[in-house]
Design goal:
The complex is a heterodimer of chains A (308) and B (269). Chain A has 308 residues and is of the alpha/beta class. Helix content of chain A is 43%, strand content 20%. Chain B has a domain of 188 residues. The N terminus and C terminus of chain B are likely disordered. The chains are: A alpha/beta (308), B mainly alpha (269). Chain B: Keywords: Ubiquinone.
Chain lengths: 308, 269
């Protein structure tokens, strides 16, 4: 099976990144389980793609993957989805319509390279002449944030109060920096499947949103149509790791990404988790009035909820 | 146990063929092995070839292209090794070459003129280490995978005994030398990258082509050489043993004097 030694990923990162190395600002916050006492027995395990790993190490393994892919992330997204990820992100932002009811304070988690943040600010500006909407981009990975920062430097939002970058863990954003009930909109695009404990991330999302605030998640999900599922599996497990190896020099990280998609809960299960976190969701079906909206047959999916 | 016998019963039927889901692969034959299907190998061959052509700095793609296109050359190299006693010893002991298996400090203390000292001088002069070789991942047979890995790790020795720098025109010359000596298709295809060279470098390379082809084809098959046993051997005697002679003198960016601490006279630049 794949040998995914973190050292090899790290050395691949040094080989492939073109940005100067960043100083780590501070280490991410430790796994938070405030109501549980530490267990003396065997440590809890979780999945990392198709491997089973101790829970404590998943975070650093994921960080290793994204350190490695950061510099080529946008290129790889284009190659892997043949540019379709742009359509999905456009639809995601179009659905949320930031700025339609006045300026929003948005937090975009796992949004390192700034794709969603830029689309939201542009949407608010172009459609509603809104220059007060702001986005706080949060990511656990400093390399991804740096890539986002550099991209924003080429735009008019650089050095304004509309955009800020923060290194934090989605499971424990931190009470001091991210106050409770402070955001109108929480978005997480293609990031939640990498979180070790999804429920904790949902709980944090609930905490930082204002009452009436919207939670929106864009993620890869289960394809229900069997023919499409076959083609999609073939493409995912065959072509994507090879593209990762050819374009980015890192087959293992892309193998992980493909496997992590399969491990993510189904549309229905995830909608249930969102409802359990306290959000009001639509009915348990796809489409208008539903808790989720399938894109391209379920390859990607938008889940939404409102904090009541 | 039960599952294995069920699998045997199923695969023994001529009609039923076990179809594996695309998400799983057959078990690896050695650590790091990734078994690919035939269409995947074709895709990797084309993809890595294009990438290696347009970005020759991507050493990993050159390596993968070599693995994809090796074809019958690897079994031939294996046969070469099995025919000779030194080669058989290499296959039995499977030595690896990287900075943890090669004691560079000890080699640098060897007297001038020995192969070990020449190698260390060459490493310093070019600014490379023995660690830059990609592990073999796509060759299915473990023994052939080792032969490929050995070829990759010995590439620097071919540079060192011929005194060739690592700039692109000399790299291609050494690749053509390897093609004449070992027969791997990737090495010949590396010659195609000459069309991307600027005219001055291409002219310099063309001086080396006759030497590369003649010397490579007449020398002993270098894959059978147990280099690690020959650190103390005088490098000129070694070249005589192998049937290798000097190429036209190359142009180095760093004069010889600096690398050896000024004990040897600088080669004309």
């Amino acid at each position: 099976m794949q040998s995914l030694a973190p050292r090899r990923l790290a050395s691949a990162c040094r080989r492939s990144t073109t940005l100067p190395p960043t100083r780590r600002w501070h280490s991410s916050s430790p796994q938070s389980a405030p109501t549980q006492t530490p267990e003396p027995g065997p440590s809890r395990t979780t999945h990392f793609g198709y491997r089973t790993v101790p829970e404590e190490s998943k975070e650093s393994l994921v960080r290793g993957v994204f350190d490695s892919v950061a510099s080529n992330y946008d290129l790889m997204n284009d190659a892997m989805s043949m540019g379709v990820h742009r359509l999905w992100k456009d639809e995601f932002v179009g659905l949320l319509r930031p700025g339609s009811k006045g300026p929003v304070r948005c937090i975009d988690v796992a949004g390192g390279t700034g794709d969603i943040a830029l689309r939201m600010l542009d949407h608010a500006r172009e459609k509603y002449a809104d220059r007060e909407t702001s986005v706080d981009v949060v990511d656990i990975n400093a390399e991804m944030l740096r890539a986002g920062y550099v991209r924003f430097k080429k735009t008019m939002y650089h050095d304004t109060s509309q955009i800020a970058f923060h290194e934090a863990n989605a499971q424990d954003l931190g009470q001091e920096r991210f106050l409770s009930n402070s955001y109108d909109l929480y978005t997480i695009a293609f990031g939640i499947r990498n979180v070790t404990n999804i429920r904790e991330a949902l709980a944090e999302a609930y905490r930082v949103l204002k009452p009436g605030g919207t939670f929106a998640c864009l993620e890869f999900n289960k394809v229900t149509n069997p023919i499409l599922a076959q083609l999609y599996d073939q493409y995912s497990f065959s072509v994507i790791p090879m593209l990762g190896s050819i374009l980015a020099g890192d087959r293992d990280s892309y193998q992980y990404l493909v496997e992590s998609i399969r491990r993510f809960p189904s549309q229905w299960d995830f909608a249930k988790m969102i409802a359990d976190a306290g959000f009001a969701t639509g009915e348990h079906h796809s489409g208008n009035g539903g808790a989720w909206r399938d894109l391209w047959g379920g390859i990607a999916c938008i889940h939404t909820g409102v904090k009541v | 146990m039960r599952l294995g016998s069920r699998r045997q019963a199923q695969t023994s039927s001529p009609v039923f063929k076990r179809v594996r889901h695309v998400a799983t692969r057959p078990p690896p034959a050695y650590p790091g092995h990734v078994p690919l299907t035939l269409p995947e190998k074709a895709f990797m061959a084309v993809g890595s070839g294009l990438m290696a052509f347009f970005r020759p700095q991507r050493g990993d793609m050159v390596a993968v292209f070599g693995e994809m296109t090796a074809g019958p050359a690897l079994p031939q190299l294996l046969d070469r090794m099995l025919e000779c006693e030194e080669g058989r010893r290499i296959l039995k002991e499977r030595p690896r070459i990287n900075s943890s298996t090669v004691d560079l400090a000890a080699l640098s203390r060897l007297p001038e003129g020995t192969f070990g000292r020449t190698y260390v001088n060459w490493l310093e002069r070019c600014g490379v280490t023995p660690d830059t070789r990609e592990p073999v991942r796509y060759v299915d047979d473990p023994e052939l995978a080792y032969v490929m890995q050995r070829y990759r790790e010995c590439h620097d020795f071919y540079h060192a005994i011929n005194g060739m720098p690592v700039s692109v025109e000399y790299e291609i010359a050494v690749k053509l030398f390897e093609f004449a000596n070992l027969g791997l298709p990737m090495t010949a295809l590396a010659g195609l990258t000459t069309i991307r060279l600027p005219p001055k470098k291409r002219a310099r390379l063309s001086e080396y082509i006759p030497w590369a082809l003649r010397c490579g084809s007449s020398a002993r098959s270098l894959i059978t050489v147990y280099w690690e046993e020959r650190w103390n051997q005088n490098v000129e005697d070694l070249k005589c043993d192998l049937g290798v002679w000097d190429p036209p003198p190359p142009i180095w960016r760093k004069p010889l004097g600096e690398a050896t601490g000024g004990t040897a006279t600088a080669v004309e630049v």
